[in-house]
Design a protein that fits this description.
- The complex is a heterodimer of chains A (about 180) and B (about 450).
- Chain A is mainly α and about 180 residues long.
- Chain A has ten helices and two strands; from the N terminus they run βααααααααβαα.
- A two-stranded parallel ribbon of chain A has the order 1-2.
- In chain A, helix 6 packs antiparallel against helix 8.
- Chain A is elongated.
- The termini of chain A are far apart.
- A ten-stranded mixed beta sheet of chain B has the order 5-6-4-7-8-9-10-11-16-15, sandwiched between helices. A four-stranded mixed beta sheet of chain B has the order 21-20-19-22, covered by helices on one side.
- The chains are: A mainly alpha (about 180), B alpha/beta (about 450).
- Chains A and B meet through helix 8 and helix 10 of A and helix 5 of B.
């Protein structure tokens, strides 16, 4: 099952989100995809576990996912992919949430790169390909979009900058102290 | 642009090197200058037949360098993080649309946070703080790395090549300056064929004699300096003339080309970005963008520049404040790439003399440039009547300006100019950039020379 990603993305752009979906409605919308693919939905205790583990950002992500599934053809793509899948995708759903872990609803709504990242991760989870792309090309695009990697670089660079500032401040303090001693 | 100090003030977050002129030091940038020239010429050669898509792909090859610089800049890390963006998102030129723009005010405020902090890099160690001249707005602080300071000599080699000008060994370059400071100096140019740079001020004794004796190969100036040059009986014979900073009229360009018999390159640059484009020698009014060093977008008719050439300060979507349209162009001059049309930077303005002659208002710019003014505007109200608006309270000794302006206008052919001097809190701006000269007189013959 291949998805026309460009078309899907333009569907998203034309479907403004008026108000966020409550969590129970979001869960029901995602569960519907399983039912439509003649699969058992994810167990309630699993949803609860994720909610306890991941907190508010996960609720936002679920809301955005529900929005994408109801306002675009993503639901049809998801159902078709789940029907065609050789293995049970449900146990892998937690990986999807791990991979989009830093993405807020606002990012997915207003930032085209994070939106693409979220949709591609979802397609990858449900086993749908992207039309016109080989598996490697899709993976390479996902690697490029992976916001977790960017955050790691930001964090490393900020840490290095703070360290460097500390060294500079210490050097300046020592120079000041040495100058004072000399004057005295 | 003027040098503002040895960067001591930025030592806590930025480079601490002193500005160096010595030959050995400047020569260390020779290899980088050669590489930069090859990059521009190779791109031009590789794309003599390319269409827009192929050329765009060629420019996109340079995005990764920009992305790595953005990761190194504290300002960009913070601003992109806040928006959930990553420099790695930049894969195509179209992706730029999803990135924030940088305006002049923010650049002026955030100059300490913008540079890429890389203690080991010579470019970082050699960086200096300069102050823009303020010819198109209030002066701001800009950090330039060691190579940025000699990049113009690479550009001279580029423009010489594309105009078919052969520069001799050890060329003589003269910077002809009409600024009131009267500053003069001499420097060696190891990155320009071991040449020599001499700055000659028209405010110092015998500028004409010294200019003629210099045996100049490349002449740099701005329209104010070129106005002075054209008022002289005898002019030098350089092989190449370069003009920037102010509006260069087509009439003046023609006169200059006739008298010096050399190609005139009118280039578009700013202290913040460096050279961006140059005016086509065959289709005046069209400015060819220096791809792949620079990328120019037109956003709501304002020119927005991304510098793809590596520099200590990554510039992503910098708002120039100038108006214009950018389009792909296969020009009859042989240039293929992106061209700026309807450029309204350095706005043309012509004042009407009582005898019916039109005079380029930028001839008066020399009076205002490099003065400690927060802002000014000169408006021609009637033939002999001008209003000079100065931002401030009038307590800073600028009251003599009215008299100086009247003297200059008399020299330019107004028998009895009347000046209304007015101090204002701020100047009303139409568009995004200051408009230093305006006229309220509509002359039927005043048609844009460049259309």
């Amino acid at each position: 099952m291949d998805c026309e990603l460009e078309g899907l993305i333009s569907e998203v752009e034309q479907a403004p989100l008026h108000s966020p979906f409550p969590l129970d409605v979001s869960i029901a919308i995602v569960s519907d995809c399983f039912r439509m693919a003649s699969l058992e939905p994810v167990l309630e205790k699993d949803w609860q576990r994720w909610e306890e583990k991941t907190g508010t950002l996960w609720r936002e992500q679920m809301g955005m996912l529900a929005h994408l599934l109801t306002s675009t053809s993503l639901r049809e793509v998801t159902v078709a992919a789940l029907c065609e899948a050789a293995d049970d995708r449900r146990p892998m759903l937690h990986r999807f949430f791990d991979q989009i872990e830093p993405l807020s609803a606002e990012m997915i709504r207003s930032n085209k790169f994070r939106r693409e990242e979220c949709i591609r991760r979802w397609l990858q989870w449900c086993g749908a390909g992207v039309s016109g792309e080989s598996l490697q090309e899709s993976q390479s695009r996902l690697d490029r979009l992976d916001y977790r990697k960017t955050l790691e670089v930001y964090e490393r660079a900020e840490k290095a900058r703070k360290e460097e500032m500390k060294v500079r401040m210490e050097k300046a303090r020592q120079q000041k102290a040495a100058a004072r001693g000399w004057r005295e | 642009m003027s040098y503002a100090g040895g960067a001591q003030g930025i030592s806590t977050v930025g480079p601490g090197a002193d500005f160096r002129h010595d030959y050995e030091y400047l020569a260390t940038y020779g290899e980088r200058s050669d590489r930069a020239l090859c990059r521009l010429l190779d791109f031009r050669r590789q794309h003599t037949e390319s269409d827009r898509r192929e050329m765009t792909a060629g420019v996109e090859d340079h995005l990764d360098t920009l992305a790595s610089r953005l990761f190194g800049s504290p300002y960009y890390r913070r601003i992109l993080h806040r928006r959930g963006l990553s420099p790695r998102d930049l894969v195509s030129m179209k992706d730029l649309e999803g990135f924030p723009m940088l305006d002049r005010t923010t650049l002026g405020k955030m100059w300490r946070q913008l540079p890429v902090v890389d203690e080991e890099s010579p470019s970082y160690q050699d960086a200096v703080l300069v102050r823009s001249s303020g010819s198109t707005g209030s002066p701001i602080q800009v950090i330039r790395d060691g190579y940025d300071l000699v990049h113009m000599w690479t550009m001279v080699r580029f423009w010489a090549q594309i105009t078919g000008v052969e520069l001799p060994k050890s060329p003589m370059v003269v910077l002809l300056c009409d600024l009131p400071s009267g500053l003069e100096y001499q420097s060696r140019l190891p990155t320009l064929g071991d040449g020599t740079l001499v700055r000659i001020s028209t405010r110092q004794p015998e500028p004409r004699r010294r200019l003629l004796e210099a045996d100049v190969d490349v002449l740099f100036s701005d329209p104010a300096g070129l106005h002075w040059l054209l008022s002289e009986e005898e002019v030098p014979r350089p092989r190449l003339v370069l003009s920037s900073a102010q509006y260069l009229s087509a009439q003046m360009r023609r006169e200059l080309e006739d008298r010096v018999r050399a190609p005139v390159i009118n280039y578009y640059a700013s202290s913040e970005t460096g050279p961006i484009a140059w005016e086509c020698l065959q289709s005046l009014g069209k400015f060819h963008v220096l791809v792949p060093d620079m990328w120019v977008e037109s956003v709501k008719e304002e020119l927005v520049v991304t510098r793809l050439r590596p520099s200590i300060v990554p510039l992503l979507r910098y708002r120039m404040g100038d108006g214009g349209q950018v389009a792909f162009d296969a020009c009859r001059c042989g240039y293929r790439g992106w061209t700026i049309r309807d450029f309204d930077g350095r706005r043309m303005c012509r004042f009407l003399r009582p005898d019916g002659q039109l005079v380029d208002a930028w001839k008066l710019a020399r009076l205002f440039k490099h003065r400690a003014l927060d802002g000014f505007r000169l408006t021609q109200l009637r033939e002999e009547c001008f209003r000079l608006e100065l931002v401030g309270s009038g307590e800073d000794g600028e009251t003599s300006m009215g008299g100086e302006l009247a003297r200059l206008l008399r020299r330019l052919g107004w028998p009895d100019p009347q000046i209304e001097l007015e101090y204002v809190d701020e100047l009303e701006v139409r568009g995004t950039k200051p408009e230093p000269f305006r006229t309220c007189i509509t002359s039927p013959s005043d048609v844009d020379e460049q259309t």
